[in-house]
Amino acid sequence: MMKIHKLLPLIFLVLICGLLGGLLGIKSGRPQERVFEIKARKYAFEPNVIRINRGDRITLKLSSLDVTHGLYLEAYDFDAKIRPQTPYFWIRHPSKSKTYNREPQESYTFTADRVGKFRYRCSIGCGPMHPFMQGEMIVEPNYLFPASIGLAIGMVFSSIIYFWRRKEE
After folding, report:
1. Residues in Cβ contact with 159 at an 8 Å cutoff, skipping those fewer than 6 apart
2. Taking the C-alpha atoms of 22, 27, 32 and 37 in order, what is their torsion angle to the nearest 10 degrees?
3. Strand runs (DSSP E) across 65-150, as ranges?
4. In 25, 61, 66, 69, which residue has its Cα 20 to 30 A from 11's Cα atom?
């Protein structure tokens, strides 16, 4: 039977691989500039799911393919009125104002500073299925995945070394 002091280097190898995986995950989670073109049409947004990392600087470009739509983004105090066949839209921040800005915008930029799953939905009635017109913005840096890969690699190497040493004894 192998003594604990012989297992310590294997445990150390597993921990080092996990640490390296975690460090690689932090490096890959650096904020990026991201641009999303969201197209609204009756009862759907395209894309209907946006995946980003915390700290990313997001630029939204909005357009409507058929009728006037709205886009309200939960937790970011953003609401836009999008008219059909025009690259411009009007913005308001519901917590500050009930009216839209007079000047149309071509894009809106913000920093994704909250982790979580946030819905965006149509905020202007566009027909009988209007309540079902929504999408999701998922903000989540994935530090756990690279660390898990590192730990798994460490476990594989440690197991190989353990059984190789055991065979020699």
Report:
1. none
2. -40
3. 69-73, 78-82, 89-92, 108-111, 116-121, 134-139
4. 25
Pure H helices in the chain: 4-28, 144-168
Task: Answer whether the bond into residue 31 is a cis peptide, omega within 30°.
Answer: no
* pTM summary value: 0.68
The tokens describing 47, both together, are 């894309």
Q: Do 95 and 70 touch, CB atoms closer than 8 A?
A: no
- Digit-coded pLDDT (tens) for 4-54: 666 677 677 667 766 666 666 555 556 889 999 999 999 999 999 999 988
Query: Could you tell me the sign of the dihedral formed by the alpha carbons of 155, 159, 160, 165, in that order?
Result: positive
Distance CA 138, CA 97 (A): 26
DSSP H helices, 29-119, are: none
Residue (of 91, 70, 73, 74) closest to 82 by Cα position: 70
Closest alpha carbon to 76 in 126, 139, 15, 125: 139
CB 82 within 8 A of CB 63: yes
Q: Is the pLDDT of residue 144 over 70?
A: no
Is 144 in a helix, a strand, or coil? helix
